[in-house]
Design brief:
RNA_pol_sigma-70_dom, globular, transcription regulation, single chain, RNA_pol_sigma70_r4_t2, sigma factor
Length: 254
Amino acid sequence: MTIPADASDSDTDLLTAVRSGDTAAYGTLYERHRGAARQLAFGLAHDPADADDLVAETFAKVFASLRAGRGPLVAFRAYLHTTMRHVCYHRARRDRRLEFTDDLTRYDEGQPFTDPALDRLERSYAVAAFRKLPERWRDVLWQTAVEGNSPAEVADMLGMTPNAVAVLAHRAREGLRSLYLQQHVAVAEHPECRWAGDRLGGHLRGRLAARDAARMRSHLGWCGDCRGRFAEISEIDGLRHRPYPQRHHADRAG
């Protein structure tokens, strides 16, 4: 849903008022954006009670950030939706760790379970990361990783040598991986934290220039929040998610 320009301007004034201690201004923001928030919440959590909890927790988190002098200065709805996706993601990860059992003497792994809401969120992160890649990288990644074509086959399509395709595909995969991890990092308020947050994925994958890597290490040495974000995406990277499943040639033949 597109927000009219005058409403966006009004949101900016309301955000300023909330930072000044006007709780009624946040009530206005809540009423204005509650419908859109509920629509997104029902896309992330099918159960009405879970969706309502997600909306309530998201608005509470944003309000706490604003009262602490952080949070958005403009684009309230975009910030609200980003916060909700992160709340949903963290709730799903937390719930996966819970175990209710009377017998702790042994564990039965059983059948693997994929949380639908978490899976949808992961896919949205993968799509967002893919769209941020340069067009040439998207082309070669799609042909090799999704369609399952060999570098020699892709070389004919793109007018490149097979070796050049292989090198470009490797760079594209690394770029996608860094951007995919980056989607999991919450928006930071401090300028230096925003600088670090934009590069945490690249730092984890060893893709930063030497000067930026040294600056990142220095920042992580004193910033506990960014260390937490880095630990979060390190855990995600350790799970070895594959954003795009590769298709087999037999599938294409059928």
